[in-house]
Write a structure and sequence with these properties.
Length: 302
C-alpha cells in the first residue's frame, strides 16, 4: 500500500529508532535504580563504604550514549535534508495562515479554503502568516513548518495516495487556535484538472460573504448571534454600540464610516466587552469597493 506522501517511511523510521533507544534507556536505567535500591539498602549495608571508580565503566557510559546520539542525528538529518530540497518541477501554492483559518492561493491568484493537489505531483507550499506565529501540520504526510510573520518559509511534499488528509495549526496562536483546521484533498490528475478549471475560486456565496471568508473574518465574528472573539455580525448594521475610544466610552451607530474605520484601524474603537489587539489592519488588503460589498451582505443578517 502506498504511503500518503514521500516522507512517511523515512520519518517513521527515524521516530521508531529514537523511540526504541529512549525505551531501552528508560527500562535499563529504571531497572538499574531498582537493583541499586535493593542491593544497597540500609538493612544489608548499614555502614557506608567508599567505592573506587571504574575507568572502563566510565568510558562505556560516555562512548555508548555518544554513539547513540550520533545514530539519532544521522537518521534525523538524512530525513530532514530532503525536506528542504524542492524539485524543480514542483507546483507552487501559497499557504496563507491567519487567526484562525487557512487559505491556499494558486498560480492565477484564485484561492481555496482547502488544499487540493494532483496525485504524484510535487507540491511546494510558500508559507505566509498575516498576523502571528502559526505552524502548518499535515500528520498523514509527516510534515510541519512554521509560518513566521515577515519571514519567508516553505515546505514541500509528493502526494502518493488519493484521499483527504487533515491540516492543523501546531503552534498556539490565540483563543480559537484549535479551530484552525483545513484539509488536503489528493485527486487524480484528471479530477484535479476538472476541479481547477471548473470549481477553483467559484462560489455560490454573495461577494461580501466571499470576502469575509477569504480574510478569516468569520473566525472571530459569527453570523448567528454567538459572541466569539469579536462582536457578532448578526443585526450589526444600524445597531447602537458602546465603544472604547482612547480609554473613554462613547456610543456609536454602526454605519459605513464605522465599519470602514474598524477594518482599517481595528483598535481605534473597540466594542465594550471585547479586547483590543485581536485584529490586524486590512487597509492594504480590503478595498473600499469590497467594504461596500461586505456592507451589502451585513445588511442581510438581521
Amino acid at each position: 500500500m502506498n504511503q500518503a506522501s514521500n516522507f512517511v517511511e523515512g520519518v517513521d523510521l527515524s521516530f521508531y529508532i529514537i523511540l526504541g533507544i529512549s525505551v531501552f534507556f528508560l527500562v535499563g536505567i529504571t531497572a538499574t535504580m531498582i537493583w541499586f535500591v535493593v542491593r544497597y539498602r540500609k538493612s544489608k549495608s548499614p555502614k557506608a563504604k567508599n567505592i573506587e571508580g571504574n575507568n572502563k565503566l566510565e568510558i562505556l557510559w560516555t562512548v555508548i550514549p555518544t554513539l547513540l546520539v550520533l545514530v539519532m542525528f544521522y537518521y534525523g538529518w538524512t530525513e530532514y535534508e530532503p525536506m528542504r530540497k524542492v524539485p524543480k518541477d514542483a507546483m507552487v501554492v501559497k499557504a496563507h495562515g491567519q487567526m484562525w483559518s487557512w487559505s491556499f492561493e494558486y498560480d492565477d491568484g484564485r484561492r481555496s479554503e482547502e488544499l487540493v493537489v494532483p496525485l504524484n505531483k510535487p507540491v511546494k507550499l510558500e508559507l505566509i502568516s498575516h498576523d502571528v506565529l502559526h505552524s502548518l501540520y499535515i500528520p498523514a504526510f509527516r510534515i510541519k513548518e512554521d509560518l513566521v510573520p515577515g519571514k519567508d518559509n516553505y515546505m514541500w511534499f509528493l502526494p502518493q495516495k488519493v484521499g483527504e488528509y487533515d491540516i492543523f495549526c501546531a503552534e498556539y496562536c490565540g483563543e480559537r487556535h484549535s479551530y484552525m483546521l483545513s484539509m488536503v484533498r489528493v485527486l487524480t490528475e484528471q479530477e484535479y484538472n476538472t476541479w481547477y478549471e471548473e470549481k477553483l475560486g467559484k462560489s455560490d456565496d454573495p461577494p461580501g460573504l466571499q470576502i469575509l471568508k477569504q480574510n478569516a473574518c468569520l473566525s472571530c465574528h459569527s453570523r448567528d448571534g454567538t459572541e466569539i472573539v469579536g462582536p457578532t455580525f448578526k443585526g450589526i448594521w444600524g445597531r447602537n454600540e458602546v465603544v472604547i475610544t482612547d480609554g473613554e466610552e462613547r456610543e456609536i451607530t454602526v454605519d459605513k464610516d464605522y465599519i470602514l474605520h474598524s477594518i482599517y484601524e481595528p483598535d481605534a474603537d473597540v466594542v465594550k466587552g471585547f479586547n483590543a489587539g485581536q485584529m490586524i489592519s486590512y487597509k492594504n488588503t480590503i478595498s473600499e469597493e469590497q467594504i461596500d460589498q461586505i456592507i451589502e451582505y451585513l445588511k442581510t443578517l438581521q
